[in-house]
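Hey,
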Amino acid sequence: MKNDTLSTWMDALVAYVRSGQADLTNRQMALLLLVYRTSGPHTVRGLAAILGVSKPVVTRALNTLGRLGYLRRERDERDRRNIFVTRTSRGAEFLEGFKGLIATKERRRPQSVGQAALA
């Protein structure tokens, strides 16, 4: 099989599905990564704008991610009307594990001839 990013991603996803962990949709995974990989504070409105979806769509994804313990909502202490989406240690652990799956698959995939010559 050709050594490329999509093949590595496929292998990592197959390993993830086999792991028995909760299946996340692409939308849920994108939302999770946005919160963990970009600086906050994160709001439902802001996340919806970045993803180009409605606030109810983000709310549904957050409900699932909240039940899994990967994200949580916190009320802004300065303005109680605002709700922030925040990280959790369980979500960080999940993403570290997923990152590990990707790294493992990258290491196991044989290098192409061009890449081997550069090493």
